[in-house]
Structure formats: structure tokens, C-alpha cells
Amino acid sequence: MSSGSRSGTPPVSVRPAVDGDVPAIGRVLASAFSDYPFLRHTIAADDHAERVRRGQELMVRRIGLPHGRVWVAEDGGNVVGAAAWTTPDTDLEAAFGPVAAEVGELAGDRAGIAAAVEEALAPYRPAEPAWFLATIGIDPSRQGRGVGGALLRPGLVAAEEAGSVAFLETSDERNVRFYQRHGFRVVAEVELPAGGPRTWAMRRVPAG
Questions:
Q1: Could you tell me the pTM of the whole model?
Q2: Tell me: the pLDDT tens digits for 127-168?
Q3: Are strands 131-138 and 166-170 parallel, antiparallel or unpaired?
Q4: Whose CA, among 26, 57, 58, 206, lies 20 to 30 Å from 17?
């Protein structure tokens, strides 16, 4: 799958990720989320960028690849974006249980807040098995050029073919319109505890 380009920018191709992509994915996602409100609120400020990079690598290597699905966007062999999902087949306890201690360590002095945030968001998450967009990010230099849509598409197609709900959360209001263009609707606006950012829970139902 490929995405068109603007102003001579090379098109990107989207393919399933492999383990060897993880370091590049970590770097790209750390750059994409360098000042993301949700992560600023739930991950310690000290060495924040490195904590974010490690957290994104953990999500991809330990959750997405073995238990869900991960796609990368690349041009000329360079990773410029990635998306990781859990799926209706993901055993969430088996996936997240073994990494809980590492996630807490990455949160650092924000661990208590991170736990409260999870509790606040839990009521709005699907009760039924769903395709859950765990993370998606684009190299900042490639944003606004169709890469995000190209990365999102494989997961949406898979969810549609399976007749499954797709779900995500975003703490950046600018992303809400992007996801709405791809068929998501807002099901909740949550003011996160401890002065956290507003977060939008969004759901997409299959057309069938």
C-alpha cells in the first residue's frame, strides 16, 4: 500500500512491521510524541523523551508485534511512521500483565496519576472485543501529507472485514477531525484527573 505525495515528496509505502523495525519505530514515535499532552501528564518529566521512546518500543515489541498488529510507513527504506493495534483476538491480560512493572517504571513519579487516568478512561472503552489503536505517530516532517491516513487504513480495513468496532483515544483536539474523516465518532470527552488534558474517546462501527 502506498500514499501519494505533495511537492515532490516521495510516496510512502505501508507494510506490516517486523522486529527489526522496532528501534526506528521508537525513534519516530518519540519524535511524534515529544510534547503530547497525555504523555506529558502520565510520564515523568525527567528524561521524558527517553522514557517516551522506551515506552513506544515496549508497546510495539512486547504488545503490538506478539499480541496485535503493527504497520510501518517508510520511504526509501526509512521508517517515517507506525501504528500499533490490539485486536479482538488479543489476550489483554497475557499481553499487558508481564509489562506492568516496566510501564510503572517508565511513568516514574507520575505512576499514580497514570493509574488514575486509566481508571478514568476505562468506563468509555468498548465492553466487547475491538480493534484498539494503541499508538500511531508520524515523523513531524511528514505530517499533513497523507501518511497518517495510509497508516490507519490497514487496521480499519481489518476491523471492517471482521465486523469489529475500532476504538481510540486522543488528547489532541486537532486529531479529532482527522479521525472523524475516517469514520470515528466521539463517544466521550474526559477531563483527566490531576489537572490532565481533555481526552476524546472515539469509536468506529463497521458499515455492515
A1: 0.93
A2: 999 999 999 999 998 877 789 999 999 999 999 999 999 999
A3: parallel
A4: 206
